[in-house]
Amino acid sequence: MQTEEKQRELLKKLYLEYYHRLFLYARSVLQDPSLAEEAVQDAFCIACVKQEQLTACGNPAGWLVQTLKNVLRNMERSHSSLYSFMRAAVLYDDTVLKESWEDANVDLLYGDLLPEEDFRLLKRIVLERYSYLEAAEELGISLEACRKRVQRIKQRLREKLGG
Amino acid sequence: MKANETFDDAAMSDKDLEELLRLELDREDPALTLRVLESLSRRQPEKSGEAEAAWQRFETRYLPLEAPLYSGEAEYPVKKRKRIWLRTVSLAAALALAVGLLAVQAGGSDPVTRFARWTTERFTFGQTDLLPVEEKESETANPPQNLLSESSEPISYDSLEDAVEELGLEGHLIPAWLPEGYALESAEVRHMAGFSAMYVYYTIPGEESFIRFRYCRDHPGSSGGVSIHEKDDTPVEVYERDGTLYYFLSNEGFESVTWMLDDITECSIGGELPREDLRKIVDSMYDM
């Protein structure tokens, strides 16, 4: 459809114009190029959903920067939340020392809490700061499937550990 | 540092600029952020093909997502003065609102009747058929629906009355009273795919204060959308006048009142003014 094509072209124009500056901003905050790109991609996913608003606001650069800021804040919240769950999960095994839980050989833990593959995914995202895309590519699954798997892991830990 | 202050670009290293950007994260005004980014991008220019390659990844990997990755608690902004009112036909956004919402107004059995619902962070007159109780998990990827939306150039008018007439609205919509000093700044109507929206701004000349009127009417036969008002945890007040329920919301200093004129028309008035003034504005609409 012509309208869809027009919308896509408008979005692409904005994307190509502002991508680099937004990426620089996200990288300054996150200190990681892969996570920075994911933040910018997510900001443009929101721009896609909210394209009418973006078009109507009269200041697309400001809108995109502010949206990216919100994404960055949400990323930090999301990471903190996952970090808390993972910490609780590791310390669920009382042989792990609190001071060194991040270094525990987590592959040997959690038979009861999480399948090994799920725990590895959590470790990638929480401790090794993989982007969802990097984690998805490593597992050979789609980004959506990766996101849903993390959601399920979080839900499972919430059910088993409380909180 | 405020946005309208200058920063000494030449005296700052790249690291200084990046630190400044990190500090800007909690500020709402993106103007300084943009200026710092402009400076940093001159020093660290884009590599050839970088954005194009990222766009390819966006189209193939991120666009098929059912919803943005980090939008669960997102605050979708527009210019600060125009913040608050969001509109989307994205089912994903509606689903995100479903959990924990409170239905407060029975609307009968009509499936398109809109219910006022709110959480501590959002308020909506979302359609009931767009708000299932639980979000369903699915491995099936669908593109966000609003990519398909359509917008138009705004049409300007000389008064609130003219803009209301353009929308074809009737009822108590024109106030006889506004707080002292406010004068019309702009009145615009946009006809979008599925709905038309009116934005009218009154300001005090030379000051930042403004009052915004936003009336939005779904086109007959369209499925309409879900309106989302951001709010803080200040209790919502409900005020009834001649059978119409007016909902008073707060969002960190921005006060607004919103109501359904009929099944397809949502109205709101907002600004950084006392809730009591909003109440007086509403009451004055019955004096006309």
Could you explain the architecture of this structure?
- The complex is a heterodimer of chains A (163) and B (288).
- By secondary structure, chain A is mainly α.
- Chain A has one domain.
- Chain A is 75% helix and 0% strand.
- Chain A has seven helices and no strands.
- In chain A, helix 4 crosses helix 7.
- The longest helix of chain A has 32 residues, at 60-91.
- The model of chain A has no long low-confidence stretch (mean pLDDT 83).
- The longest helix of chain B has 14 residues, at 30-43.
- In chain B, the strands form two sheets. Chain B has an eight-stranded antiparallel β-sheet with strand order 5-6-7-8-13-12-11-10, with helices on one face. A five-stranded antiparallel β-sheet of chain B has the order 1-9-4-3-2, covered by helices on one side.
- Chain B is of the alpha+beta class.
- Chain B has helices at residues 14-23, 30-43, 50-62, 91-98, 160-167, 275-284; strands at residues 85-88, 102-103, 117-118, 122-124, 155-156, 183-192, 195-203, 210-218, 226-230, 237-241, 244-251, 254-262, 265-271.
- Chain B is built from six helices and 13 strands.
- In chain B, 34% of the residues are buried.
- In chain B, a hairpin with a 2-residue loop joins strand 6 and strand 7.
- Chain B folds into two domains: 9-43; 80-284, no CATH class.
- The radius of gyration of chain B is 21 Å and the shape is globular.
- At the A-B interface, helix 1, helix 2, helix 3, helix 4 and helix 7 of A face helix 1, helix 2, helix 3 and strand 1 of B.
Enumerate the spans of chain A where pLDDT stays under 50 for 5 or more consecutive residues. none
- How many discrete domains of chain B? 2
Q: Name the overall outline of chain A.
A: elongated
Series of H and E elements of chain B: HHHEHEEEEHEEEEEEEEH
Distance between the termini of chain B: 47 Å
